[in-house]
Amino acid sequence: MATTDSVRVRVFSLNCWGIRYLSKHCHQRYAMIGDMLCKEEHDIVLLQEVWSEKDYLSLKKKLASSHLYSHYFKSGVIGSGLAIFSKHRIHDTFLYRYSLNGYPYMAHHGDWFGGKAVGMAVLSIGSLTAKVYVTHLHAEYCREKDSYLPHRVVQAWELQQFVRHTSAGADVVILGGDLNMHPQDLGNRLLRSYTGLRDSYLETDTFDGCEDGLTLIADNPFISKKELVPFEKGIRIDYILFKGCPQIDIFCDSMSTTKGSVPDQLFPYSDHEALTAELRLESHTPPETGRDKLSKNQDSAAGKVAELVDIVTEARTEVKVGLHCAESMRYTATRTGAMGLALLFLELAIAAVPWLALGAEQPFPRTSFYLLAALCCAILLTTSLLYVFYTMELKSLQGAEDQMRLAVGSLQEKLRGFPVAQPPNVQQKPPEGQEPSAFDPEE
Amino acid sequence: MATTDSVRVRVFSLNCWGIRYLSKHCHQRYAMIGDMLCKEEHDIVLLQEVWSEKDYLSLKKKLASSHLYSHYFKSGVIGSGLAIFSKHRIHDTFLYRYSLNGYPYMAHHGDWFGGKAVGMAVLSIGSLTAKVYVTHLHAEYCREKDSYLPHRVVQAWELQQFVRHTSAGADVVILGGDLNMHPQDLGNRLLRSYTGLRDSYLETDTFDGCEDGLTLIADNPFISKKELVPFEKGIRIDYILFKGCPQIDIFCDSMSTTKGSVPDQLFPYSDHEALTAELRLESHTPPETGRDKLSKNQDSAAGKVAELVDIVTEARTEVKVGLHCAESMRYTATRTGAMGLALLFLELAIAAVPWLALGAEQPFPRTSFYLLAALCCAILLTTSLLYVFYTMELKSLQGAEDQMRLAVGSLQEKLRGFPVAQPPNVQQKPPEGQEPSAFDPEE
Hints:
Strand content of chain A: 15-25%
Radius of gyration of chain A: 26 Å
Largest sheet of chain A: 7 strands, mixed
Oligomer: homodimer
Helix content of chain A: 40-55%
Number of helices of chain A: 9
Largest interface: A-B, 62 and 62 residues
């Protein structure tokens, strides 16, 4: 391991709410954000909802001297809205598009068109390799009756998979973004338990910001109070998460959020609060673990695996609810399509009567005939598109459910392998250079 | 590193051509495939084009005793067609859907509906962790005028990214599947150079199979000779690739393919030939490298990076061709849509004349009016869908192009860092437990 005594990394994350012409004061807010970033010179800036590439490019221009490296993640119809600016060299980027992301016909929610994804960048921080992730999950429009919950759970599942499988070998892992999940929500527990990522708000020594670390607050002038009910003060849905590796300890020295306004400005940067975390990376040699400590570690690891089994089982249940719902939607589409087809045949049959029985009068006024036929065709087309869409949704849900079943099986087998007395095989610390077992929650 | 003297792993790969009711003798061929797999007991079986889940399930039933573990990767409308059977425990699976995969309106080619992807499975082979990939890239329908080339290049790019980023820390990496690329095709070079994966056909000590390792041959009764022109004998597009890690050497002891027929059977397993590779894994301690060897290694590494720059640059050019094409298609869709809209307005304006100038006669026969309006609406709807689709294609192409530009920049910087005399920083062997630099071709 390279000799790094102590490296400080300042990470910034903000959902910019950057819908051109629709978001209030969009242009001015970008100008404010650019000025602030230029002045603050964070090491890593993770932005979400930068929907227009033009805004990204103008930010890039402004930050050309403070942040030499940047990347804009493109995806879907509009884009992923994800951008990263960095003072450290970006070597490589990779994008994973979530397989589920709402419905195209829910155009007023717009999530589907955004092509929600998680973007990864490989950075060199001194001699260390950092894998930095930025993401934005599907919004929650109604907590009481959240029809997107299965989609968000699958997104969280895919996010933890992506982070877990791509971060092996990295010295530092940092994830920032708008997860659209409360701290104790299922998807959040899934992500944190599986990847071992730690929440900078919970880990920080000193915190300066909104009460309880809220990031969507009632005091923000862009927020309608109605949306927040029943959480009067606000909710915490934006995060900066991190973890080190066996050779690198990572600490959050301080964390802050904006508080719904910006000094000397008329309005805040966005409808979300901005997060800043100051991380400290310290290299160390993993201490030799004595027998007692090993046994203690085993107990705690077994506890973690058991907890993980519970969480994944809960997630499976949620995905099954989604499956059931998608199946019934597809059934409805099929039935409606069949009715449209039947109606079309009926109409054609009635219209064919005069041809068959020569002399009989055409029973249809022409206009009604064409209107009805057009209606039938429109129904058929729409239901066909919906059928294709729901089939894709079903496949994705089934795929996630399969993976979760496999994961629970593997976890349960691991759990059975934790004996009380003798140090088991699975618990042996993997040798350096080898990835720990795929389901080690501390991986 | 665990002590493994020598572990043998037999890997099988086959494109099953499993389109129910369309592929010839589909049912009987699956029965043959199942019998053979049951008898041969390969360690790892990688199947493509298993389009029906029912066929997967019947294979699973048949292989229940020989291959305890299996996974079917679900994706897209029909599925990814990818399946894996294993004698070794599958701990975890993950699926990456390629961002580009043909066009939905090219229904007769059908690739879009398949949801092409790369599936990964994490296996324990004894004490070793193996990451096994199975994939199937977009077909090549016409080599002379291959309109899908940019899509396939982007798929190869995403495939190498996925393998590279998810395989860090694995002891063994195995990739099998139908790449739909000739050995020296751009995408194949991109994949092999970037990931360091080796081709079992080129590496094997003994080979038994079709001449030149061909996997789509003229002698196969399911192949129409016309499709193969100008490659009379056939082409090699199916592969088993592999690599080890610093502590594990991997060798291909033998390799074989079927030869267009199966003894005592009326027809072969598929229109593709089946591949079997016998791999031998040997643990070893990386030798200390002397100064001379280091310098030699440097030269070879610099050469590889330079080669990689050329390949990525070539890929960028190909993606740009695709971008240009997608842009012009989107422009055509926009123009056609605008004409449809103009026609609709014109029609409405003419029809409105009688209302405005009372008493004037309605210039339209009703039937023509409704037919024309329906036509305009159909044009508008179709062109809107195409516009959305091409925009998504553009975003994906742009995204890949951005990533490639970044990669070339990083590679060039690395190249500049290779001095002649003094051992440079980049060339230092990364310490165990740490991932090598993101662009090490040997990674």
